Amino acid sequence: MESHLLIVSLIFFCFFSSALSSSVVTHLPGFQGPLPFYLETGYVEVDEEHGGEFFYYFIESENKPAEDPLLLWLTGGPRCSAFSGLVLEIGPLKFVTAEYNGSLPSLVYHPYSWTKVANVIFLDSPLGSGFSYARKDEGYDVNDASWSEQTYKFLIQWLVEHPQFISNPLYISGDSYAGKIVPMVAKRILDGIDEGKEPLLNLQGYLIGNPVTGGKVDKNSQIPYAHNMGIISDDLFEMTQRSCVGQDYRTPTKPQCAKCLESFDNFYSEINPCHILEMSCGPDKEANHLHRRMHATSDKRNLKQNLHFFQPPPFPDLSCRTYAYVLLYYWANTNTVRKVLDIKQGTIKEWLRCNFNLPYTQGFGSNIDYHLSLLQRGYRALVYSGDHDFMIPFSGTRQWIKSLNSSIVQNWRSWFVDGQVAGYTMTYSNNLTFATVKGAGHTAPEYKPKECQTMISRWTANAPL
Asked: For strand 420-428 and strand 408-417, is the pairing parallel, antiparallel, or unpaired?
């Protein structure tokens, strides 16, 4: 086995030069005692011209790391840190949501982590996300194509330094806007395999949650979803359907259509689009840096001198889910934390959960062709949706899946966890599984962690949901 891995490493080195630095983290500030799992952090150079490096958190499977799948996890935004995915969604750590008193926020072990069944790389990408950085400003001017290409380069470089995982089943994964990028990365890997550069990469497929497609279905599906959920009236729905027929709702050209969409936007703005049943806590200040600058917070007087603060986000009500988002900011901008994570000094002055200050070109092009290319070659796909997400409604996701024109292997049925309905699922002849997560919002594992862990455990084991 060792000789096989050596040969694989040599093959990879023939095509790629490695530029990786990493550290093993055994303790984290805010967590009591040693970490009960293997955590590694590090950097990989992905843009030599502009000095761009991706930062990552790697957590080994808590089950059988030598055999379990390897998941590359991308977080959406674009430019939300993968640390969100780690501590808010699928990782083995959670913040204690307690009123902030100026001390370091506390972390606890999260039992419903996906690392129970998989090795997971949480990747800060594209450049400018989390602790990923570029030494030249031009490196931050990115788009869908450069993000996916640099992610592909990262993965190859990372596997050069971690050859023990080359033979593990590989899945590219992510949610929200990353749902648009994941199939692009998987297709880039497939192209590399076809070119003979990475014939030994064990790509098995991809998985995406409440995913953006980049097509008009994302926005257009919000209208019927709002009508079905009782958010807009019959009259507004019917008028929108008549006046906007054939239109892309993102760029309406007919005045009557634009007027209807303005009325719709008013209703949309009144509720929490991430989960229509949860309280609206105002804009996510940590996800919109421009809004944060308009508000001051009295918590600044409690800060210790070893914090990198510019304009800390104000705390919402303690009962708001977004309260934990602000705790991330205070934790990640602490010098002691940065030292433990081995963050390169002078690279990121202020860590943001989501950084929307840097340029990013979001194309309107749909990624459906990438799905088709992968599925037609037999790769597996899991597409899941929290069914109370208003941003990317499950009905729109179901619509574009239907457009792939694959026959149904198993029609709409319930799937269960602990004897209770956890959602509904369909499977298709192209190896695609679609699943709703009942009661979940935009980032489904954040709302229904046990159900989503069960879902991923069954799916990666090739078992029915």
From this structure: antiparallel
